[in-house]
Specification:
The protein is α+β, with helices and mostly antiparallel strands. Strands 2, 3, 4, 5, 6, 7, 8, 9 and 11 form a 9-stranded antiparallel sheet that branches. A 6-stranded mixed sheet has the order 1-12-13-14-15-10. A hairpin with a 2-residue loop joins strand 14 and strand 15. The protein is globular, with a radius of gyration of 18 Å.
């Protein structure tokens, strides 16, 4: 595995000799702008491995995206190669329809230490919950970013990432009540402790996510990519282009349904993805309550 090839994949051309915050921010941002968060392997007959080398081959060599155990594990490897001190953590994703955090830790994130301060790096949550820059691990501190204002809240050793966003503007009235849009202006995203985890901790979760009929990822085909102004997403057969802060306090959600014969073209033209196996769009489980 080659760090220069990874940098080429994410379009990073800056210096990386110093394992400092500025370099971390730049590499983090380039990753989320270049590598889609996607679970399409689940919907085209491919098995997602828990191991690093298949994730590297898939994302770097085959120009695919991936979910957190692929993207954030790959990012952890890049952190190590660049000389950062980091720890892998496990997070419980907030289940909006159930209004609670999922019980298993299915989300992999990284804590990075720089000059005695801890930062959370997460390049693979996707859609509107994706942070663009690493966040200092301080309870109650607001972190204004393009998607909204993120913050950590610590309670009894449990850290919660939450986001305060803007009101959605949805020109296509047929999507006014879409469960793909979170209309809560402030909402939790995931919770975690500072207990170190290795990849073996996630193996059962990785199997569950791609096999269980209860898993969000078996019920929803997802591909999203952050942009300099928002994000683009193909979820099931719904294509969205989101512009953050389109008007003061308002995000624009431009949404439409696409025909099955348009799917491959959108994946190629918008997300630069070419799948070897046919992908079957699926959207049978809600993201958010309405």
């Amino acid at each position: 595995m080659n760090l220069e090839d990874y940098f080429e994949r994410i379009g990073f051309n800056g210096p990386f000799e110093k394992a400092d915050l500025e370099t971390l921010k730049n590499v983090h941002m380039q990753h989320v702008l270049s590598v889609p968060f996607e679970n399409l392997s689940v919907h085209c007959g491919e098995w997602i491995s828990a191991d690093l080398e298949p994730a590297y081959t898939k994302i770097v060599k085959n120009n695919r995206g991936g979910w957190c155990c692929e993207n954030n594990q790959l990012f952890a490897w890049a952190l190590k190669e660049m000389g950062y001190t980091y720890t892998t953590l496990g997070a419980r994703v907030f289940n909006c329809p159930k209004n609670e955090f999922d019980q298993p830790e299915t989300h992999l994130i990284n804590k990075v230490l720089i000059d005695g301060k801890a930062y959370i790096a997460d390049v693979s949550f996707g859609v509107s919950g994706q942070i663009h820059h690493p966040m200092e691990l301080v309870s109650g501190k607001d972190h204004p970013q393009l998607p909204g204002v993120f913050r950590f809240v610590e309670k009894g050793g449990v850290w919660i990432l939450e986001k305060s966003g803007r009101k959605p503007l949805i020109p296509n009235e047929s999507f006014a009540n879409s469960s793909l849009i979170n209309k809560r202006l402030t909402a939790p995203i995931y919770s975690f402790t500072l207990t170190p985890r290795d990849i073996d901790h996630f193996r059962d979760a990785i199997k569950f996510l791609q096999t269980s009929p209860e898993s969000l990822f078996t019920n929803k085909s997802i591909c999203s990519l952050q942009t300099p102004t928002g994000f683009k997403a193909l979820i099931g057969s719904t294509y969205s282009e989101v512009t953050y802060d389109y008007q003061e306090g308002v995000d624009l959600f431009d949404m439409k349904n696409v025909a099955d014969d348009e799917i491959d073209e959108i994946l190629k033209e918008v997300f630069s993805l070419s799948l070897k196996n046919k992908h079957t769009p699926k959207d049978t489980k809600p993201f958010y309550n309405q």
